[in-house]
Amino acid sequence: MVFGQVVIGPPGSGKTTYCNGMSQFLKLIGRKVAVINLDPANDALPYECAVNIEDLIKLSDVMAEHSLGPNGGLVYCMDFLEKNIDWLESKLKPLLEDHYLLFDFPGQVELFFLHSNAKNMITRLVKKLDLRLTAVHLVDAHLCCDPGKYVSALLLSLSTMLHLELPHINVLSKIDLIEKYGKLAFNLEFYTDVQDLSYLQRHLDQDPRSTKYRKLTKELCDVIEDFGLVNFATLDIQDKESVGNLVKLIDKSNGYIFASIQGSVVDFSKIAAAPLNWDYYRYPFGQCDAFNPTNLDERVQNGLET
After folding, report:
1. Which structural domains are found in the chain, ordered by start?
2. What is the pTM of this model?
3. Among residues 122, 121, 137, 112, which one has the least CA distance to residue 14?
4. Digits of tens for pLDDT over the chain (306 positions)?
5. What is the DSSP string of 52-75?
6. What's the CA gap between 29 and 105, in Å, rounded?
């Protein structure tokens, strides 16, 4: 079995930085990682990718040849990749024996809750190559500072979960910058646990711009609460403990923690129900000095050395 992550999220949510930081972290704890760039608009990669969609098709060429804008060009590229999925499979097969896969997808949100090409590709790869993938959906944490934007992020997360039909973890990225854009109306747990959105509706009612949408907002919040599927993990990609906690969540969701275990059903059940405080890393955190997904300041570097 091959394990990995499908990294998705709106533009600016930090997907490329996440893939860079996550690949470094996973390598430092003993995993062989292959990053697969499937974003044809991503022409400045900070990481070394094992597979790059630009070897098949380039967004700039599509836009020039077919007189398309960026959004139309991205849809065209994804359609083209779906029709040439054999190319991607052939590139992935040499990596299946011993690599952990990170798929860096485009940030066009329509690809993951309206169009079927991305879902069809993922479904085929999962079934044909026997992949165990978790969708990691990044949402910029600063959206929590605006109740209306936060409700939109909840709807996007829910729609994506239902559309992709994968083990799914929603992540508030850039959590270290969350209050840079304004003070939160409630404590952070309110936004991560997504419980009792009636408090959020009362806060929205204080904004005269949202008064005319009061009924719509209430109905949308009711839909989110009725499904009861959405919650968020938090992530500071420059903090080793934050990244480590997210890795544990992902490993539990796609079954990575069970891959090397031989035991009874009872043993598996104990692990499945256990809290996320087990230590299964091949190397201790103290050896993570090289973890440097971005230009870390002196404070963060000192933190990695402790």
Report:
1. 2-304 (3.40.50.300)
2. 0.85
3. 137
4. 899 999 999 988 999 999 999 999 999 999 999 999 999 988 788 889 999 999 999 999 999 999 999 989 999 999 999 999 999 999 999 999 899 999 999 988 888 878 888 999 999 999 999 999 999 999 999 999 888 889 999 999 999 999 999 999 999 999 998 878 778 888 999 999 998 898 888 877 777 777 778 888 889 999 999 999 999 999 999 999 999 999 999 999 999 987 755 555 445 455 555 555 555 444 333 344 445 555 434 433 343 333
5. EGGGT--HHHHHHHHT--HHHHHH
6. 24
How far apart, in whole angstroms, are the C-alpha atoms of residue 49 and residue 34? 7
CA–CA gap between residue 234 and residue 160 (Å, rounded): 18
For 145, the token pair is 């500072």
